[in-house]
From TrEMBL:
Domain of life: Bacteria
Record localization: Cytoplasm
Region of interest: Disordered: 276-333, 347-390
UniProt-recorded name of the protein: Dibenzothiophene monooxygenase
Gene3D superfamilies: Acyl-CoA dehydrogenase/oxidase, N-terminal domain, Butyryl-CoA Dehydrogenase, subunit A, domain 2, Butyryl-CoA Dehydrogenase, subunit A, domain 3
Sequence ranges assigned to domain Acyl-CoA dehydrogenase/oxidase N-terminal in this UniProt record: 37-105
Length: 501
């Protein structure tokens, strides 16, 4: 199999690409915020500090009011448009995109409720538009079974005590959307949902967020100590252990926004890896001796000895990447693709242009194809050899694109299934959660493949691919987790009403 000359232009940018008018209406805005976020991303990741500069840019340019209806002072972005914007923001900094996704999905939920006449939703949306109110949530902490307790007072207010973990963007939030169980947690208990202004008497922030990835989200703990919640702040009630309308609605808007965020991280990792692979595939000046040796070896089907540069010097290495049919098998381009080109994988190496070179191509078709391989790859004497990208690298790139495109199609297909006048039901919840599952698993796989393609340099802390590798792992922890999603969808398939996980 012949190598392919590397075109001089930049690599083609990964998906998502807009397919409908207005899909990318807010992508330039997200890119503007992302440019600010990217300048500080490494610092916030290193120090586990909040992405405050990006939030200042969001306030300045209106990103926090992205889904607020235009008539209420917002930008009027649809759920689909928010997903495109978040995919763009995720390209620049995963932590910034994930942090604001918590605010955006809450805002989308309020817009959904407002459109259907829910009291109070319009007031919240106006506050977001007029004062850039940031809403934090504690859904990842509470889920269906909160252990925060509330006692009902004579006037209908609540006294709430408990600890909320995973409160992303807590340092910036002006309110937290949360819940508490009335009385003793357990079957038969009732859960009240409400919001608490930040700061409030009895609420304190404990900086506990020191994690593997997404270190800039500042998802610290909020501790509530006998906090008073007025009766009018209670927006919904549900049975303990069940979704109820309130959680179902929130999660239907959470899943697509978060899915798009992780796909954006993976898409940028793909682009960075392809750029790295193209950079390595630069023309190399050949001497008459090496030109003759390469041509002779390709014509005879023998294995040539090459000189490989390593981090400590040069050493002879034998290129054998394409001498076996296994070199082009799916196993050879799995996340363990490093085995196909170990000789060329010095620091910063990766799946290199040397793999599958002219010297070892006879194994693809025997001596009958050797002359053709030589004619395609032999360099002119005393000249420069064209830059080439190996078939192995091409296949890794193709696999990344296949996973990214399929995952994005899953997400946009799920949104199409919802339709313009969607209801938030168990079936709707399963639809978007299946799409989220596909997105987060694809993101993890694509970033791993990108590191394989980029090589050992991606293992350094200074590499954005190293940070992307850590950041995308967070995607598998958001409820519903990938495994819980399958179980939930399977329950519905067998006729379960889907009121609980």
């Amino acid at each position: 199999m012949a190598t392919t000359p590397a075109a001089p232009e930049r690599v083609r940018r990964a998906y998502p690409a807009p397919v409908r008018d207005g899909d990318d209406a807010f992508v330039p805005l997200a890119a503007r915020i992302g440019a600010v976020a990217a300048r500080h991303a490494a610092e916030h990741d290193r120090d586990a500090t909040f992405v405050a500069p990006a939030y200042r840019a969001m306030r300045e340019h209106g990103y926090l009011r992205l889904p607020v209806p235009a008539e209420l002072g917002g930008l009027g972005a649809s759920l689909r448009q928010v997903c495109y914007a978040q995919a763009e923001l995720g390209r620049h900094d995963g932590a910034t995109a994930l942090a604001v996704s918590m605010h955006l999905h809450s805002t989308l939920t309020q817009a959904f409720l407002h459109e259907r006449g829910a009291p109070g939703a319009g007031q919240v949306l106006r506050r977001i538009a007029s004062s850039d109110l940031v809403i934090a949530t504690s859904g990842g902490s509470d889920w269906l079974w909160p252990d925060t307790v509330a006692t009902v007072q004579d006037d209908g207010s609540l006294r709430v005590s408990g600890r909320k973990v995973f409160c992303s963007q807590a340092p910036e939030a002006g309110a937290v959307s949360t819940c508490a169980v009335l009385g003793r947690p357990g079957p038969g208990a009732e859960v009240a949902h409400f919001s608490v202004p930040l700061p409030s008497p009895g609420v304190r922030l404990e900086e506990t967020w020191d994690t593997l990835g997404m270190r800039g989200t500042a998802s610290h703990d909020l501790v509530l100590d006998d906090v008073r919640v007025p009766a009018e702040a209670i927006v919904a009630r549900r049975p303990w252990g069940e979704f109820g309308d309130v959680l179902t609605t929130a999660e239907v808007h959470f899943a697509p926004v978060v899915a798009a965020t992780y796909l954006g991280i993976a898409a940028q990792a793909r682009d960075a890896a392809l750029t790295r692979a193209r950079t390595r595939a630069q023309p190399r000046t050949l001497t008459p001796a090496t030109t003759s040796a390469a041509t002779t070896s390709a014509a005879t089907g023998t294995t040539a000895s090459a000189t490989t540069t390593t981090g400590t010097g040069t050493s002879p290495a034998t290129s054998t990447a394409a001498t076996s049919p296994a070199a082009t098998s799916p196993a050879a381009t799995s996340p363990a693709v490093a085995a196909t080109g170990a000789a060329s994988r010095a620091e910063g190496g990766g799946v290199s242009a040397a793999e599958g070179g002219a010297a070892s191509r006879a194994g693809d078709g025997g001596a009958s194809q050797a002359g053709s391989a030589a004619s395609q790859t032999a360099a002119p004497p005393h000249g420069s050899r064209p830059a080439t990208v190996s078939p192995t690298a091409q296949r890794v790139a193709g696999l990344m694109d296949a996973r990214l495109r399929t995952a994005w199609w899953s997400l946009t297909g799920a949104l199409d299934d919802l339709g313009p006048g969607y209801a938030c039901t168990p079936d709707t919840l399963a639809t978007v959660m299946i799409a989220k599952r596909e997105a987060v698993l694809a993101a993890v796989e694509v970033v791993g493949l990108a590191m394989d393609l980029a090589g050992g340099g991606s293992y350094f802390r200074r590499s954005p691919l190293e940070r992307a590798c850590r950041d995308v792992r967070a995607g598998t922890f958001h409820p519903l987790t990938p495994e819980a999603t399958l179980l939930y969808a399977g329950k519905l398939a067998f006729g379960d009403p889907g009121v609980t996980e």
